[in-house]
Amino acid sequence: MIRTRHSADINKPFTLLEDRHEACTMMYHVIGLLLVLNVINTYASIVNEIDLKLIDLYKKQYGEHSIVKVYHRNKKHYATKEPLVHYEILVVAEAFYGVPMADRMLAVREMAINNVPSIPGTLTVFTCYVPTFEEWRIENNKEQQFEVGEVDRLQANGK
Description:
Blueprint: H1 16-62, E1 67-76, E2 83-92, H2 101-104, E3 111-113, E4 123-130, H3 133-144, H4 150-156
Antiparallel strand pairs: 1-2, 2-4, 3-4
Keywords: Membrane, Transmembrane, Transmembrane helix
Transmembrane segments: 26-44
């Protein structure tokens, strides 16, 4: 523990009360740091949950081996300065070979797709912006209101 003193009191010994005060101050700093780390850990677990759900959606829609690598990095929105979680998802282009561009877009999130030619065996990079967890959750719940196969029936009927 580092002890600090005013220069005038440098030669005075520490009293028990000063030691206790210093220990309490240090304890408050440690508790504060633990609270901050807990908040960071909670946010990281939310991000991981989104990550896993997106991966599952891709696998369901485009096949078990369609995803090669998923990672995210924190960014800020250029206009609002709101924090964004930026996902770059590398998908084997074979999963999309001959698939119309409109069908490549997932309903969960607006996706920006880089113009990479769909050559079998190459990688296509998808970028997904997730502005808030709440917004993502609302959209995800909307999707879950449909029964399995109901979306296909609606699309077949042209709705």
